[in-house]
Amino acid sequence: MDRLLHDACARVGLSSQGAHLLRDGENQVYSLPGRVVVRINKPGQGQAAAREVFLGRWLNDNNVRSVRPLDVVQPVTVSDHPVTFWRELPPHQAGTPRQVARALKQLHALPVPDELLGHRVAPFVRLRERITDAGWIADADRTWLFEHLDELETQWTGRSAGLPDAVIHGDAWAGNVVEVEGQGVTLMDLERCSVGPPEWDLASTACRVTSFGTLSAEIYAEYCAEYGRDVTQWSGFELFRDIRELRVTCYAAFVAQKQTGLRDDAQSRVDSLRGRRGPRPWSWRPIE
Known about the structure:
This protein is α+β, with helices and mostly antiparallel strands. The protein folds into 2 domains: about 1-90, Phosphorylase Kinase, domain 1, CATH 3.30.200; about 95-275, Aminoglycoside 3'-phosphotransferase, Chain: A, domain 2, CATH 3.90.1200.10. Helix content is about 40%, strand content about 15%. The protein has a 5-stranded antiparallel sheet with strand order 1-2-3-5-4, sandwiched between helices. The radius of gyration is 20 Å and the shape is globular. The two termini are about 25 Å apart.
């Protein structure tokens, strides 16, 4: 990976000397001296990487603050890995629910650009693979998770109509909508940004109240007042809630495959979905 990083940086006139690994997950993320962040994507993700670069520029051009791509021709491809370059954010902290709502309201009001019209929200991406890869899960639980996924996919095709489709963030939790020192609220992690129902974004915060027990009703009311809509009162919310719950569960199960100390937390999520831990909210502990 060091050679790949070196070659990618050289392609855009940068040096990889002094690079520091920030994250080694599905993608590798490095920081460079000079406040540059390098993201090395998985092979075959060239279109997705190019879309993120476009979105970073387009959002900022339309007065929605987001992470900014470096002003170079990108992505570059090295050994089939698309590589992108970004300005490192100054010190920042997770946004408040009110700030998240305000940022989403601004985002959802933007006209959908032609470059994004062919990219629809994909709520089930990677879920089947994550269930399969979590080999520690009991066979009966794995079978149930696959059946639950099948059922939700069927319901999604006939889901209730809501607000008109818009540009949505796709993963709009407080860690991805941050308050940057001296700059204000900024969107991060544009990987899931697409065209789809705004309710998909709104459900992220709503689930913190209804499912996870990590947000008070009073603060959620402020969130709804800021955006102008309470998604929990919409007829399609339960489907969106159930999909969000399954996504969080599958992620936990995937992470726990290697981090065995997290398996009890991941199993508690499976047990909750299967009705073994009583009614919502379940007060799940966050898994990073």
